[in-house]
Design a protein that fits this description.
This protein is mainly α and 89 residues long. The chain has one domain (5-88): Up-down Bundle (Methane Monooxygenase Hydroxylase, Chain G, domain 1), CATH 1.20.58. 84% of the residues lie in helices and 0% in strands. It has helices spanning 5-30, 35-66, 68-73, 78-88. Helix 1 packs antiparallel against helix 2 and helix 2 (35-66) packs antiparallel against helix 4. The longest helix is centred in the middle third of the chain and has 32 residues, at 35-66. It is elongated and about 55 Å long. The two termini are 20 Å apart. The relative contact order is 0.16.
């Protein structure tokens, strides 16, 4: 399966954002901050990771639909991709 450069760039940006949010939560915990202060950061990090995964999976799925024989030969037939979507969602 091939992923577009755009999808990879977008996912990497989301993952960097999530990493920054996780580091911020770590810092808040070490500073003794309360839940209401760091839970929004955790939620945002979770959402960023989820969106990165969906973006990559959608790009991969699109490629597989455009190249069904190559996808199947590479171990990504439509059924496998659909199960991957179900796991992520």
């Amino acid at each position: 399966m091939e992923l577009s450069a755009e999808a990879v760039t977008d996912a990497r940006a989301r993952l960097r954002r999530a990493a920054g949010q996780v580091l911020a939560v770590e810092r808040m915990l070490s500073e003794g901050k309360e839940c209401r202060e760091f839970l929004p950061q955790l939620s945002a990090a979770n959402k960023a990771i989820e969106q990165a995964g969906l973006r990559l999976l959608a790009a991969g799925y699109a490629w597989c639909l455009e190249h069904p024989e190559e996808a199947k030969a590479g171990g990504y037939p439509r059924e496998v991709m659909e199960r991957m979507f179900m796991k992520l969602g």
